[in-house]
Design goal:
The protein has twelve helices and six strands. By secondary structure, the protein is mainly α. The protein has a single domain, classed as Orthogonal Bundle (Arp2/3 complex 21 kDa subunit ARPC3), CATH 1.10.1760.20. It has a three-stranded antiparallel beta sheet with strand order 1-2-3, with no helix packed on it. A three-stranded mixed beta sheet has the order 4-5-6.
Length: about 375
């Protein structure tokens, strides 16, 4: 018998309880509330605002895709897949804001921009948001444009470059990334307040802006710390992975294959071993919404295949296991989408050049003069 009984695996609504049956048939409530990453859902933004942000998001994504095509090489192709997988997995891990009963999660726009450059970084965030929406129901379909504008375009394009230019060298990369990460959370929350006010929800703009900016100022500290730790580690072991420090002669393709496997492995580890133990507190948006009540009626446009990041398969007797399995599935799907998109965008000339590089490298290695990698 399946260990999940009586309700689907979801916890966002307090009226829904998730239970499992112990061997003694004792019913135990596993969760009545979820704190999983929740982007802007359906029914918050008015149709006009949703359409406007959708047009802006699509136009911005098209520009980013065109710019990415100009720089795609093996490096960008591999890192787009691994960064998308890591951002997806990291967003599943809500961190608590003690002593407040609130949690936050990584946005990842600045982190992606530092590794990939702003254009590819924004495309990665778009891939993550699309999979989160369509597969997990995280973020509304009608609000996808707003979510991409707030998390992708603002985070990847608007804040890192000015701070980076103000401080040079490796210190500039680290300080710029951390400062931009904090500012990106503040700007994203401010953009949401503007979108909400334009939707005419009846909640005062300054009230929403004040509360959401205050809460996300604290969440931004977590974003800055996570971004800083990742960038500091990369600078110490593989500084060539930072977008602005890419050497003219790229490493052999086989080395990028090693990075691909390592990055995907780290992402899977985060999704499987950390995500199930994410904070159970409401995230910043949910907490502010509960306080101000600007969601009058929650609606969904469609039913996701794996709602709330919990996969109710036969044999999964614990909600944390269901979350771990869903996280692993999502990580692989996001990686596949982003990597495939990068391969599709790679110009034929670059593909042919990469093939020649592999052949040349294999020829050198066969002659016994190759670099030991």
């Amino acid at each position: 018998m399946s260990g999940i009984s009586g309700a689907k695996l979801t916890g966002r609504h307090p009226a829904v309880e998730v239970v499992r049956l112990l061997p003694q048939n004792e019913k135990v409530v596993l969760s009545s509330q979820s704190s999983l990453p929740m982007h802007i859902p359906d029914a918050i933004l008015s149709p006009a605002v949703a359409a406007t942000t959708g047009v802006i998001g699509v136009a911005g994504l098209m520009v980013c895709v065109r710019r990415v095509q100009e720089q795609l090489r093996d490096r960008t192709t591999v890192l787009m897949g691994t960064m998308a997988a890591f951002v997806f997995a990291a967003q599943m891990v809500n961190f608590p804001l003690f002593p407040l009963p609130i949690s936050g999660h990584l946005l990842g726009g600045v982190l992606s921009a530092v590794i990939l450059g702003p254009w590819a970084g924004a495309v990665v965030i778009a891939a993550v948001l699309i999979v989160q929406c369509l597969l997990f129901g995280d973020g509304g379909l009608t609000a996808m444009g707003a979510n991409f504008v707030n998390m992708g375009l603002i985070g990847s394009l608007c804040v890192y470059a000015p701070i980076r230019r103000a401080v040079g060298g490796r210190t500039g990369v680290l300080v710029g990334a951390m400062g931009a990460a904090w500012f990106s959370v503040i700007l994203a929350s401010g953009a949401f307040a503007v979108e909400l006010a334009a939707s005419g929800t009846g909640t005062g703009f300054l009230t929403v802006l004040g509360w959401i900016a205050l809460v996300h100022a604290a969440i931004g500290l977590g974003e800055a710390v996570i971004t800083g730790l990742v960038i500091r580690f990369i600078l110490s072991v593989r500084p060539d992975l930072i977008y602005e420090t890419v050497p003219p002669d790229l490493p052999p393709v086989r080395r990028w294959g090693q990075i691909l496997l390592a990055g995907l492995g780290v992402s899977l580890a985060v999704a499987i071993f950390l995500a199930p133990f994410a904070s159970e507190y409401d995230d910043g948006l949910e907490w502010v919404e509960a306080k101000l009540g600007f969601i009058k009626e929650e609606k969904t446009v469609f039913s996701a295949s794996i709602p709330e990041y919990k996969l109710p398969l036969p044999g999964l007797h614990h909600i944390k296991v269901a979350t771990a399995v869903a996280g692993a599935v999502g990580t692989i799907v996001v990686f596949t989408v982003a990597f495939s998109l990068a391969r599709m965008l790679t110009p034929a000339s670059h593909t042919a050049e990469s093939t020649r590089d592999i052949n040349d490298r294999q020829g050198v290695d066969a002659g016994g003069h190759g670099e030991n990698i």
